[in-house]
Write a structure and sequence with these properties.
Blueprint: H1 3-15, H2 18-25, H3 29-43, E1 48-51, E2 54-57, H4 59-87, E3 91-97, H5 99-116, E4 120-126, E5 140-143, E6 152-166, H6 168-174, E7 189-191, E8 219-221, H7 224-232, E9 238-241, H8 243-248, E10 252-253, E11 262-270, H9 277-294
Helix pairs in contact: 1-2, 1-3, 1-4, 2-3, 5-7
Length: 295
C-alpha cells in the first residue's frame, strides 16, 4: 500500500469529507478524491460510503483506519521521543577512550557529569583499539590521535606532552638523576613491542645521553596505564603523559629537559549525531573542565 495514499485516507477518515481533509493536508478536493480512489482500486474494496452529509467508513475502511491510526500514533510518539532526545540531555551515551585516559583522567570527573545530567546513562568502554563510530560501536570517542575514518566530527580538546616521572620512594632509594647521562645508573621502564602503532615514541630515555648506545629497560609494558602503575610502585623511571602527574600526586618529574613528544586529544563523534543534545552537553562539560584545569 502506498504510504501517501494511506496518509490521505487517515485524514479523510478523521475529517469525514474530502474538502476538510484537503484543507488539513494542503491539497485540493479533487487530489484527495483521486488518492482515495487509487487506494480503493489497489485494495479492490470500497473504503467509504458516500452520503450527502459526508463520508462514513465501510467495514473494511474502519478496519484499515484502526490499523493506520495505530501506526500514525506510534510514529507521532517516536517523533516526539526523537525531538526530546535532540532538545533535552537524556538517554544512553556510549563513550570510548584509552584505558589510561579513561581510568586516570576521565573517571574522576564522571561523577560530576552524572550529577549534572541524571537522565543520561553512560557506558564507558576502555580499549587500546578504536571502535568504529560510523557503525555505532560507540557514540563518542576521546582519542589521542586524529580520526582517520570519514564521516566523523572532531574537536581538539587539549595538547599534552610526555615527561619523565618517578615515584618519591624510587628517588629516595636510587637518587635523582641530574643529567641525561645519569640515567645509565637507573632502572628504566619502556613501552613494549606491542605498542599501538599511533603511539608516540616513548623510549627516547633509552638513548638520551647514553654513552654506550641504547640502555636496557628493566621492564617493558605494552600500555601507558601499565607503565603508570609500574612507576607508582617504585619500579623505575618512565615517560608518561603529563596529566597523570596532576591526578596521581605521587609522581615526581625528573630531567624536564627531556620532555617527550606532544600529542593532541580529540573529541570525536559521527556526523549523524551532530544535533544530539546529550553529545553536546558531554562535549561542553569536558571543554569547561579542561579550560578550568589547564589555563
Amino acid at each position: 500500500m502506498d504510504w501517501d495514499k494511506l496518509r490521505v485516507f487517515h485524514a479523510v477518515a478523521e475529517a469525514g469529507s474530502f474538502t476538510h481533509a484537503g484543507e488539513a493536508l494542503g491539497l485540493s478536493q479533487s487530489a484527495v478524491s483521486r488518492q482515495i480512489a487509487g487506494l480503493e482500486e489497489s485494495l479492490e474494496v470500497t473504503l467509504f460510503h458516500r452520503h450527502a452529509r459526508g463520508l462514513v467508513p465501510t467495514e473494511q475502511g474502519e478496519r484499515l483506519f484502526r490499523t493506520v491510526h495505530d501506526v500514525f500514533t506510534k510514529l507521532v510518539m517516536a517523533e516526539a521521543r526523537i525531538r526530546d532526545t535532540r532538545e533535552n540531555a537524556r538517554g544512553a551515551i556510549k563513550i570510548t577512550t584509552t584505558v589510561a585516559f579513561g581510568s586516570v583522567w576521565l573517571m574522576p570527573r564522571l561523577k560530576e557529569f552524572l550529577g549534572l545530567y541524571p537522565d543520561i546513562d553512560v557506558s564507558l568502554v576502555l580499549t587500546a583499539g578504536e571502535p568504529d563510530l560510523s557503525m555505532r560501536e560507540a557514540d563518542v570517542a576521546i582519542r589521542m590521535s586524529p580520526p582517520r575514518r570519514p564521516g566523523l566530527v572532531r574537536r581538539r580538546l587539549m595538547r599534552l606532552r610526555y615527561r619523565l616521572y618517578a615515584s618519591p620512594q624510587y628517588l629516595e632509594a636510587h637518587g635523582t638523576p641530574k643529567r641525561p647521562e645519569d640515567l645509565d645508573g637507573h632502572e628504566l621502564i619502556a613501552r613494549g613491542d606491542e605498542a599501538h602503532p599511533t603511539a608516540p615514541n616513548l623510549n627516547r630515555l633509552l638513548e638520551a645521553g647514553s654513552k654506550d648506545g641504547r640502555r636496557r629497560a628493566v621492564l617493558r609494558v605494552n600500555g601507558v596505564h601499565g607503565i603508570f602503575r609500574a612507576v607508582q610502585n617504585g619500579i623505575g623511571i618512565a615517560a608518561l603523559p603529563e596529566y597523570m602527574s596532576r591526578e596521581a600526586r605521587n609522581l615526581v618529574e625528573v630531567l624536564p629537559e627531556l620532555r617527550g613528544p606532544g600529542f593532541d586529544v580529540f573529541f570525536v563523534y559521527p556526523e549523524e549525531l551532530r544535533r544530539s543534545k546529550k553529545i553536546a552537553v558531554f562535549r561542553d562539560f569536558l571543554v569547561s573542565r579542561i579550560e578550568k584545569e589547564w589555563t
